[in-house]
Fold this sequence. Notes:
This protein has helices spanning about 10-20, 25-30, 35-50, 65-85, 105-110, 110-120, 140-145, 190-195, 210-215, 245-255, 285-295, and strands at about 55, 60-65, 95-100, 125-130, 150-155, 160-170, 170-175, 195-200, 220-225, 240-245, 260-265, 270-280. By secondary structure, the protein is an alpha/beta fold. Strands 4-3-5-12-6 form a 5-stranded mixed sheet. α9 links the parallel β8 and β9 (about 220-225).
Amino acid sequence: MININNIDLNLLKLFACLYRTASVTAAAEELNLSQSACSHALQRLRERLEDELFVRVDKQMLPTEYSVRLAKSVLPALSQLNQGLASSQAFSDQGEHSFKIAATDYVAWNMRSFTAFLSREYPKIKIEFIQIDERLPQEMLQSGELDLLCGIEHQKTLPESLAKLDWFEDDYLCLRCADHELSEPLSLDYFLQCQHVLVTPWNEARGVVDVGLSKLRKKRHVAIKMASLLAAPYFISGTDYLLVIPRKYAEQIQQQLALQVSPVPFAMENYKLSLYWHRTYQNDPKLKWFIDAFSEFYRLKI
């Protein structure tokens, strides 16, 4: 029977690193080991656990079925251990720290003034924006793979495991090319006749516009579907396409690309931009510092 007393904790750190990176080279660099030492350590772990653990396929180390099952226990356990060690130490905002934040390109664009502030006042603090495939990645926040999520959410209820700080609220505008033949005001009938650019950061089947139209039992024609909100306005120049995006970005990009804007011709709920974190990290000194700095910079109420 395999017992944790018979396994070096460093081997489990290697396992977690290999599982995340799928590369012996990357794992060796992260753990400050030579590639040879990393390979020998992996062989020792294979012998202790009596499984291949990772198989090389197309230059990647793919986990075996046993590794996948093992990772479900080992990765959260190591994360909790790191969290416990970190919480026992005082946080210094003058030290080197990195924050991993899940955000779409539009959300990251909104944070640029805050990151500029950090670069001036806290130059050793780094921000890593990560694109993910789900709106509320509870498991990644719980495991420590992510520190924070900054995102748009229209739903009224929040999962019990998450806490949030509301940042700002905004509505939507409809963009079109300056040469578009539309005469104001934009009617719903004309809106439905046109073709549209649909932005779906999480590869959804439909967007918030389509949700609003479904309440009217209406459907629009989508010509282009893409993940990037910041890039979307560039796809309507020289076309008859329409694009509905947040007012904050629409008003700025309108001037840069000489586009026209109109109110959306039907009722749409405003969106809120919020900062989310997992409640198990509520008292983590590092996370508390970031939330306090963020709320103070934008003068938000926690």
